[in-house]
């Protein structure tokens, strides 16, 4: 347990380090009127905080810097429970496609925090079929367009061995919309919905040929990641080691590992914070991650997150990520219920 004075000193060190990136010395702290004690007293308290692993003492400086454990204590114990956002999120989403909402959120989040923002989109199998178009591109080439409840558009081009009857194409569009509208993309009922013993052999064969446009849609679709602000991580020399960014960008391209990290936020009631070595992914071990889930009241569908240096401004970043997740949840609720 820390004394009230030690908690104040630790908070001052974390805040000063976040602002300057430089070790914080006892003389600097002694000049702070909130502390009301001299350099010798502060040096003693700094030594105690260092012994507890909350501060580190770089050999090139007399000042201290917060460790990962110090940042963790700051986030868990020293942040106020609720404070108004200094720069409120104004996403202006209105009612547009979800992929556009993801891009708006990512860019806004990156601009507000001046850090790298990552937003994961809802899995495709959580949406439903809103409309189907069947188009004859060439006499023997067909395109099936599926529009989902989230505004997503999936296209599948299907070649045939012989010219396709245009009348059959028109019939199929009407039949598919009648049978599939409102059905989930990952639903096992899809084959059952399309089966109709009263159909003629020609219609049945034609449906069998285009069914993969729907049955394989959820299996082949990849979870989308929206990334913005990578260049901001390099600004003001906040991340000096370029290999950190290269490793992180590589993981973002591969996506699988990053998606696994972000899914951890789906089980959190509030904001997830992982600092430095708390991150299992090697590319994040010298950075900090702040993430929150968004979605429907009974199910979180994706995550909003920020990655930056361990000395980031945690109060602002946590509030901003929480606000972005809340805003996306309201938007997603409207889209899925609409």
Written overview of the protein:
By secondary structure, this protein is α+β, with helices and mostly antiparallel strands. The chain is 43% helix and 19% strand. The strands form three sheets. Strands 7-3-10-9-8 form a five-stranded antiparallel sheet, with helices on both faces. Strands 4-5-6 form a three-stranded antiparallel sheet. The protein has a two-stranded antiparallel sheet with strand order 1-2. Helix 1 crosses helix 4 and helix 5 packs antiparallel against helix 13. The longest helix is centred in the C-terminal third of the chain and has 24 residues. The chain is elongated, with a radius of gyration of 27 Å. The two termini are 51 Å apart. 37% of the residues are buried.
Descriptive labels:
10 strands; alpha+beta; 338 residues; five-stranded antiparallel beta sheet; 13 helices
Shape: elongated
Helix count from the secondary structure assignment? 13
**Which blocks of ≥5 consecutive residues have pLDDT under 50?**
none
If strands are numbered along the chain, what order do they take across the biggest sheet?
7-3-10-9-8
**Sheet of most strands:** 5 strands, antiparallel
Oligomer: single chain
In short:
The chain is of the alpha+beta class and 338 residues long. It is built from 13 helices and ten strands. It has a five-stranded antiparallel beta sheet with strand order 7-3-10-9-8, with helices on both faces. The protein has a three-stranded antiparallel beta sheet with strand order 4-5-6. The chain has a two-stranded antiparallel ribbon with strand order 1-2.
